């Protein structure tokens, strides 16, 4: 049985000034599944990812045509509060970016800005999120220590915990493991596998094997176009388009 | 070729050496004259007497009234400049368009190029009468209006340096905050300002140092009456003003009265020296928090 689509792009075009970065993209992404965006650098996959939480809004000259639907609702509609949207659509960035605060304060940051002060709620959420992000055992004794003292891999899992703490339904990951060593990277992949039970995950990656391992669906972008979008297994075994085939077999990119 | 290189090198060395030499001689003059002063007036008297009347028949040598005057005008100046300067810095960083920022920042720095004597007259002839219209007891010369105008003068110093500090915070932190659903205001005050706090602190310390050493505005608008008070409505005298007053007067060279300005100058120097070193230390210690 097909699950309903959580995120959908309809005839989406995006521009940076005169540069046409995304060309009429149509995609529907399944709920509680992992969708990977792959493609060579500059193909628009990160731009596309960032339209789902409107992270491109701050870039001068950026604009879109078309629609992005979250649960059937247009997130670029006038009545949408961007900060509310981002509580629903969390994001993990390429480079771990914990705040220069304690581990605890990092995790509960999202609750604090919502005005939640109840110590018990904060502590419970902190523990739950850190457990979900598989880092609780490593940091439980030093929650009041600076997050910047953690290793890169730990910082990234902390950032995932921070994103989970505000209970989004979608998590966007922009090359979450590319700045990490192989072991940390493997931990993040395991984590993604666990998280898709509860969350819809969209991940941008340069790493073909990673896309193959973690994702249920894969979208291949090239020069601002969505070349191919299919079940990951299908795409990696029998791609339709020659460009896809060339890319996943490592002939360019 | 080789000789040319040598000449250029020695010229460069010379200009560096001259600067250092001048600094050393200034400190030397300050020190030697102060030593002569303190051989006649004990340091304890200097630091504990509550009046400063070296030019009167009944001489008192307590530096505290001058320090209090300097402290008072400086506090008022920072109280004006910090909130306004920081607000400007945050506005330029989080709200203003990039193009607007490139125009407005140099424009703000024009404030810093206005001669301080102009500020002094502005304080005396515009700000004081204006304040008097709703503070009836305000004296014609007072710490309040001098402090406020001095604050206006150092706004660009705080806004500019704080803006630099905030824009030096990695973009990834701003994205993290936005990505968590922070509003612009929450991003600015919850993440950017704390992350830039060391740079902002440095800007404030340098501004304090500037205010402590500021002379013209306080000499014109704050009065010349050394008074141990923290009341901003009455005339006071700052360390710098006293030095101007004596330097312009007919105090005989080499007298004890003459040497008071070196003792006062030494006090000033100690303050600004500590403040500048503090800012240097903070900068060095916290600068490389993010790789």
What does this structure look like?
The complex is a heterodimer of chains A (253) and B (291). With 253 residues, chain A is an alpha/beta fold. Chain A has a single domain, classed as Rossmann fold, CATH 3.40.50.300. Helices cover 36% and strands 26% of the residues of chain A. Chain A has helices spanning 45-51, 82-88, 103-112, 119-132, 136-139, 152-165, 182-195, 208-214, 232-237, 242-248, and strands spanning 5-16, 19-30, 34-38, 62-70, 73-74, 89-92, 170-174, 200-204, 217-222, 225-231. Chain A has a 6-stranded mixed sheet, with helices on both faces. In chain A, strands 2-1-4-5 form a 4-stranded antiparallel sheet, with helices on one face. In chain A, helix 3 packs parallel to helix 6 (152-165). Chain A is globular and about 55 Å long. Chain B is an all-alpha fold. Chain B has 2 domains: 2-39; 64-290, MetI-like (MetI-like fold). In chain B, 74% of the residues lie in helices and 0% in strands. Chain B has helices at residues 2-40, 43-48, 64-95, 98-109, 116-132, 143-167, 171-179, 184-195, 197-213, 216-221, 239-248, 256-286. Chains A and B meet through helix 2, helix 3 and helix 6 of A and helix 7 and helix 8 of B. Chain B: InterPro entries: MetI-like, MetI-like_sf, Phosphate_PstC. Chain B: It is a multi-pass membrane protein.
């Amino acid at each position: 049985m097909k699950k309903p689509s959580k995120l959908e792009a309809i005839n989406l075009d995006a521009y940076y000034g005169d540069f046409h970065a995304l060309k009429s993209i149509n995609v529907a992404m399944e709920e509680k599944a992992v969708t990977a965006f792959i493609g060579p650098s500059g193909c628009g996959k990160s731009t596309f990812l960032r339209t789902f939480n409107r992270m491109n809004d701050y870039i001068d000259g950026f604009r879109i045509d078309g629609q992005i639907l979250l649960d059937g609702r247009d997130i670029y509609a006038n009545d949408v509060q961007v900060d509310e949207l981002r509580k629903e659509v969390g994001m993990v960035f390429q480079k771990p970016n914990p705040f220069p605060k304690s581990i605890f304060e990092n995790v509960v940051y999202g609750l604090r800005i919502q005005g939640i002060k109840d110590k018990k709620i904060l502590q419970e959420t902190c523990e739950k999120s850190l457990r979900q992000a598989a880092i609780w055992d490593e940091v439980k004794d030093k929650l009041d220590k600076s997050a910047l003292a953690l290793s890169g891999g730990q910082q990234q899992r902390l950032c995932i915990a921070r994103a989970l703490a505000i209970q989004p339904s979608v998590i966007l990951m922009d090359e979450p493991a590319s700045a990490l060593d192989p072991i940390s990277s493997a931990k993040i992949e395991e984590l993604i596998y666990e998280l898709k039970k509860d969350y819809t995950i969209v991940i941008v990656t340069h790493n073909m094997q990673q896309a193959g391992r973690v994702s249920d669906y894969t979208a291949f972008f090239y020069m601002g176009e969505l070349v191919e979008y299919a079940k990951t297994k299908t795409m990696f075994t029998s791609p339709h388009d020659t460009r896809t085939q060339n890319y996943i077999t490592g002939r360019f990119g | 070729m080789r000789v040319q290189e040598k000449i250029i090198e020695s010229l460069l060395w010379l200009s560096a050496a001259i600067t250092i030499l001048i600094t050393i001689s200034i400190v030397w003059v300050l020190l030697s004259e102060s030593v002569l002063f303190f051989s006649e007036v004990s340091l304890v008297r200097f630091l504990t007497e509550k009046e400063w009347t070296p030019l009167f028949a009944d001489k008192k040598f307590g530096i505290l009234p001058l320090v209090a005057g300097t402290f008072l005008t400086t506090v008022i100046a920072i109280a004006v400049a910090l909130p306004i300067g920081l607000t400007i810095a945050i506005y330029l960083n989080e709200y203003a368009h990039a193009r607007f920022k490139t125009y407005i920042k140099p424009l703000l720095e024009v404030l810093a190029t206005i001669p301080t004597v102009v500020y002094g007259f502005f304080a005396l002839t515009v700000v004081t009468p204006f304040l008097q219209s709703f503070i009836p007891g305000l004296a014609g010369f007072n710490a309040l209006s001098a402090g406020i105008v001095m604050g206006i003068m150092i706004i660009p110093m705080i806004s500019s340096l704080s803006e630099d500090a905030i824009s030096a915070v990695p973009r990834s932190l701003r994205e993290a905050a936005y990505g968590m659903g922070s509003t612009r205001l929450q991003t600015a005050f919850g993440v950017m300002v704390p992350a830039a706090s060391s740079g902002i602190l440095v800007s404030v310390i340098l501004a304090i140092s500037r205010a402590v050493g500021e002379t013209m505005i306080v000499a014109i608008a704050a009065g010349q009456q050394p008074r141990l008070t923290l009341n901003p409505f009455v005339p006071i005298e700052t360390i710098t003003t006293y030095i101007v007053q004596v330097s312009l007067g007919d105090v005989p060279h080499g007298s004890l009265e003459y040497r008071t300005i070196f003792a006062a100058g030494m006090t000033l120097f100690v303050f600004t020296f500590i403040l500048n070193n503090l800012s240097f230390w903070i900068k060095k210690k916290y600068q490389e928090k993010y790789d």
